Amino acid sequence: MSTLLLITSPPTSIHAWHALGLAQALQNKKEEFRVFFYQDAVAAANALQWVPDDQRKLTSEWQKLAIRLPVCVSAALARGITDQENAQRHNIQQHNLAEGFELVGLGELADAVQSSQRLIQF
Fold first, then answer.
1. CATH classification of the domain holding 7
2. Which of 26, 58, 70, 79 is most solvent-facing, going by the fewest CB within 10 Å?
3. Whether the Cβ atoms of residue 77 and residue 90 lie closer than 8 Å to each other
4. DSSP state of 60
5. Model pTM score
6. DSSP code of 101?
7. Smallest Cα–Cα separation from 74: which of 90, 94, 50?
8. Per the structure, how many domains does the chain have?
9. What does the pLDDT look like over 18-73, one tens digit per residue?
10. From the CB of residue 48, how many other CB atoms can be counted at a distance below 10 Å?
11. How many helices (DSSP H) and strands (DSSP E) are in the chain?
12. Which domain does 30 fall in, by range?
């Protein structure tokens, strides 16, 4: 069964961590799943987000899964997160998209919803 994890909660939310936990469990069980970062969850893709040394870094934990990490481009840009291509396109001085994350359009979310057998939103 394919699962889509639609993550909308910010990295500071316990729900964002539950999404990661489910993704890790699905990966360990070798079950098919996809993720999509939307709304405030796009903050997980910010390479400049600082986390104290005594806390786990959600961004790093997602990167360790070595899966595709699509992020809504509009939600990301609205929250100050951009890749090099969009920084140039929109005359933004810096880019800060964390490694392994990728900015995509909402069409990708629509495709993921249509092709998944279940959708779980966090």
1. 3.40.1260.10
2. 79
3. yes
4. H
5. 0.94
6. E
7. 90
8. 1
9. 999 999 999 999 999 999 999 999 999 999 988 888 888 999 999 999 999 999 99
10. 10
11. 5, 5
12. 3-121
Residues 6+ apart with CB under 8 A from 76: 42, 45, 82, 97, 103
Is 5 within 8 Å of 33 (Cβ atoms)? yes
Kindly tell me the sign of the dihedral angle through the C-alpha atoms of 7, 12, 14, 19.
Answer: positive
Enter the tokens of residue 62: 């997602």
Q: Give me 67's structure tokens.
A: 């899966």
Amino acid symbol at 88: Q
Query: Is pLDDT of 1 > 90?
Result: no
Please say whether the beta carbons of 5 and 36 come within 8 A. Answer: yes
DSSP code per residue over 5-49 = EEE-S-TTSHHHHHHHHHHHHHHHTT--EEEEE-GGGGGGGBTT-
Query: Letter for the amino acid at 51?
Result: V
Length of the chain: 122
| Structure confidence at residue 106 as a pLDDT band (50, 70, 90) | very high
Q: Tell me, yes or no, if 72 is annotated catalytic.
A: yes
Amino acid at 119: L
pLDDT of residue 12: 93
